[in-house]
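tool_call predict_complex ligand=zinc ion
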Amino acid sequence: MGVPAALFKTASCHLHLERSFVIMHPPPTATSRANHARQVRATAAENTGKKLLLSGQVDRQQSRMAELQQRNQQIQDQNYNLLARQDELQQQVERRARELMALSDDLDQLESIIGITPPTSLPVADRISVASHTAFEKRLLLGSIPSGYPLGEATVTSEFGMREHPVVEKTRLHGGIDLRASIGTQVWSTADGVVEYAGHNPGSGMGKMIKIVHNYGFSTIYAHLDQVDVKVGQYISQGEPIGRTGNTGLSNAPHLHYEIRYLGRRLNPEPFMKWSIDRYKTVFEQEERIQWQSLARTVRNQVRVMDQPSSRPAASLSVISP
Ligand SMILES: [Zn+2]
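tool_result ok
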């Protein structure tokens, strides 16, 4: 055992003995040195262990970071591929649109050849022997076939026929007639019929439009509308409001584009718009592509059937009634 840690009194301060102690360490012995060295070694080992642990954690974090960077790179690559694919699809869509446009031009040309030229040259007398039409037959025809104007104030701004298209700037058939109309002008059906199309017609250039199918093979189209007030399948009477004019689709100013079709072919709406009970002959004289004579015969037969008492609903009902 070495000298234990002792309290030594200072020689000069014996008067204040109780307050004059100084803590003194004994000089290190061989044992304490060995202990100290052991302690130092243990601490060093402990530190090395901690360092190793930390270094392991750092390694794991670094590998995680590398993994995240790799994933990030993969996502960027995927994103790049998707953008490239989107570009490719967009180009395909544009190519198809151009092809369709060209096809539509070709169809317009074709229609200008086969559509506008009268398919038959019936003698005028055969087309217009309408003198015998009764007032009832006239009213039936005028209500079933598009007649009159589809809106109140009718000023024609572009006629039916070949023209330079104001938006696409190419020569093509203008398959209808353009009527000046400020946005929101009421549009009505020009004949009794049923709605076949109502709403936006993408790709047609017509914007919001309505197509109504009428009797005897006729149909009408009302395009560039701002508002559509009818639904597909709805039955419409002549003169009934169907929507409001606008500037939708391929249109550079508010107007109504109005078409009359007969068996799918576009006719010049002008004689039909001027057709009325007072100007009854107009349409028969000016539109040669319809077999008016055979149509008039059919109408006459219908009127005859309607006139017969046996065909009246009351008569039919009495058969089933007790
Ligand atoms: Zn037009």
